[in-house]
Backbone:
């Protein structure tokens, strides 16, 4: 594990992201990650709000067209996230908050795909456009996943504080 | 160099800044998700959604904006060297410039009557061309607000890029 992290962190690309004074290195990658977060969390929130009864005039079939944009946001964050990870592979890989974030992003994307592939088809063809309890529950699970992922991601910026909560020692590096 | 009560509170509790940051990111997500979706719909995506159907989401975007206004004021007034930490920062200044431009863009959208015409656009319908210009400006402005907001800590890279 340590050897892999060493390898990643010493890649020329990792060095560039971490140390280059260029605007397009760490700054732009980090900003892109925030934009992707806004897209993914924001659109999944909008879909959940609709399923929970806000804006009932939005046709449920229309929501399916939002998933293309969600995937664009996801890819932006997969690419920028990999770059941010290799830049500080050791620090990130030892953080509980980082792995919690990855786990809940994965859960969130699975719930999003379940909604798109199964629920929105059923809700229109089988349930006559009425949001059922299954739909409301999926919406709540989606919101929980995305906001835990957001909070955990934000906490990766405060390793000492989180380690203090978890009664772990060390400086977080 | 007397610290204010807020500055003392912030520097003696590490969770305070982290919590404000989390709220600031939640507010950002609400704004991006709702304003961004309305902008893209006006520009011609998601045509099966009538634009007026998105209107009940607007209060949620306003809640997001208020969250970010309040936490933003806390950041500027709670930072220990003083507000100049932010107000001297070019990325911060550009972020605020684009927040003001986005606000002006919204006021134009409402006062010009474009908003009413946009909400009258049915499912499958095309918004007026002037509204598309407003929506495109809004998208670019919010993108730049996030960009400059996030690079504030790395302002040197912007100064280097601009040769300043």
Residues:
């Amino acid at each position: 594990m340590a050897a892999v992290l060493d390898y990643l962190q010493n890649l020329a690309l990792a060095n560039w992201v971490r140390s280059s004074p260029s605007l397009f290195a760490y700054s732009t990658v980090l900003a892109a990650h925030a934009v992707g977060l806004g897209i993914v969390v924001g659109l999944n929130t909008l879909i959940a709000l609709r399923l929970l009864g806000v804006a009932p005039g939005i046709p449920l079939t229309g929501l399916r067209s939002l998933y293309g944009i969600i995937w664009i946001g996801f890819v932006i964050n997969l690419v920028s996230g990999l770059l941010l990870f290799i830049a500080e592979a050791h620090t990130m890989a030892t953080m509980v908050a980082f792995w919690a974030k990855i786990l809940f992003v994965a859960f969130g994307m699975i719930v999003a795909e379940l909604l798109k592939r199964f629920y929105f088809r059923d809700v229109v063809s089988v349930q006559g456009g009425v949001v059922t309890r299954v739909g409301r529950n999926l919406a709540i699970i989606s919101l929980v996943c995305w906001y835990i992922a957001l909070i955990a991601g934000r906490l990766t910026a405060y390793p000492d504080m989180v380690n203090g909560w978890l009664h772990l020692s060390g400086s977080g590096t | 160099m007397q610290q204010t009560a807020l500055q003392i509170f912030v520097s003696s509790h590490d969770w305070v800044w982290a919590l404000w940051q989390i709220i600031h990111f939640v507010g950002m997500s609400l704004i991006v998700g709702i304003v961004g979706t309305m902008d893209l719909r006006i520009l011609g995506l998601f045509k099966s959604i009538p634009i007026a159907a998105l209107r009940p989401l607007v209060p949620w975007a306003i809640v997001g904006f208020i969250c970010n206004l309040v936490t933003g004021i806390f950041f500027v007034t709670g930072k220990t060297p003083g507000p100049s930490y932010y107000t001297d920062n070019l990325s911060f200044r550009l972020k605020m410039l684009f927040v003001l431009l986005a606000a002006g863009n919204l006021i134009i959208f409402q006062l010009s009557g474009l908003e009413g015409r946009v909400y009258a656009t049915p499912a499958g319908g095309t918004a007026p061309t002037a509204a598309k210009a407003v929506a495109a400006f809004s998208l670019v402005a919010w993108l730049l607000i996030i960009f400059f907001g996030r690079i504030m800590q790395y302002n040197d890279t912007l100064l280097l890029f601009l040769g300043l």
Notes: Chain B is about 75% helix and 0% strand.
